[in-house]
Amino acid sequence: MDMRKIDYLLIGQGTAGSLLAWQLMQKGCRVLVVDDGRPSSSRVAAGICNPVTGRKLTRTWLADELFPYLHDFYRNLERELDTSFFHPVPLYRPYQSIEEQNFFIAQTANPLLQDYVRLSASDRAYASLIHNELGGLETLQAAWVDLPVMLDALRGRFREAGALAEDSFSWDDVIREEDSVTWKDIRARKIISCEGAYARFGPYFGWLPWAVVKGEILSVDWPGQSLPGIVNQSIWIQPHKDGTFRVGSTYEWDDLDWEPTEKGRTYLEGKLTKLTKLPFEIQCHVAGIRPATQGRRPFAGLHPEYTPIGIFNGLGSKGTSLAPFLSRQLADFLTEGKELHPDANIERFHSLYFSSLKS
Ligand SMILES: Cc1cc2nc3c(=O)[nH]c(=O)nc-3n(C[C@H](O)[C@H](O)[C@H](O)COP(=O)(O)OP(=O)(O)OC[C@H]3O[C@@H](n4cnc5c(N)ncnc54)[C@H](O)[C@@H]3O)c2cc1C
């Protein structure tokens, strides 16, 4: 059989696999992405990028690096793909109480948050739809990415470049060699698992500390209504297309399937009814599994024992913010041996792997 020789075989065309493939191709590498179109977290996600989270207004991990990078990255990618999917918008947080109002207002003077939060000057623009009697805070540098549009455009580009195999992948078909792997008629220098939540069932990365979490989202209609940004108050409301909004999301650690549930719908409906002023109609209800990790940091790097095998995963609930910067880091690591961020590099868990061999 004639072998096709490539540099990197990537399994999965979600956000992780797509952006890593793109970065590697920009460096001139020969890449093949394998994806069979099974349910994916990226195709369910709202794609929100939020640099400041929680009731304490905590700056997200690596925010100062991730956010400037992602804005440039997605804008460039839109230009390269001649498609629109990146939507920088403020994220509006209506105050829930006088105490929260005082705390948030005080935080606008916090030097660590100055690039990220400001008092909203648009309270009135939200007031037709949202209860915001106490006003609200705006998070800056926020955005949402229309992931299905971006992923479809990338898929088309990979297909044109002969860099896509629309096929099911099984690790049973992989033959490991000293410095390469073979899958079917492909020989690759490295194979990188970008399988999202499915990776925890595979033979090479099950030992990593996964903590995957199911999430559900509603699409609702408020004909004629609009919002200048994403609203966030325990749930979020994301203006999507004219008069359509996405509402999410839930967190469920136990019943880990890809099906929407009555419990998820009831929870989101209840929160939405409290936060908004107008009746709404639910158009659609979807669920997905976030590839989250204990410790909430991603998984990137090479297998402790079989170094032609690597992983880019563990993006949890922040894949849209993390993937641009980390895919670049991983591409630099793979092609130039540059250092990966130590909190992302799976080297930090190598001892777990070796102890798993003993048990
Ligand atoms: C309800 C919900 C809301 C979310 N909201 C946000 C948000 O607002 N902002 C944000 O940043 N993140 C959000 N996320 C998280 C986000 O979806 C993930 O961080 C990110 O999409 C993970 O991307 P991934 O590529 O690692 O995995 P996935 O997107 O799951 O991609 C894995 C890919 O691998 C393919 N695959 C797997 N196994 C095989 C195989 N054996 N053969 C062939 N193909 C295979 C699958 O088809 C899939 O395409 C949300 C997630 C959920 C569920």
From TrEMBL:
The keyword Transferase does not apply. Coiled coil: none annotated. It holds the Pfam family DAO. It comes from the Bacteria. One of its GO terms (cellular component) is cytoplasm. InterPro entries: FAD-dep_OxRdtase, FAD/NAD-bd_sf. PANTHER family: GLYCINE OXIDASE (PTHR13847:SF289), SARCOSINE DEHYDROGENASE-RELATED (PTHR13847). Keywords: Oxidoreductase. This is Glycine/D-amino acid oxidase. Residues 7-332 form the FAD dependent oxidoreductase domain. It comes from Siphonobacter aquaeclarae. GO terms for molecular function: oxidoreductase activity.
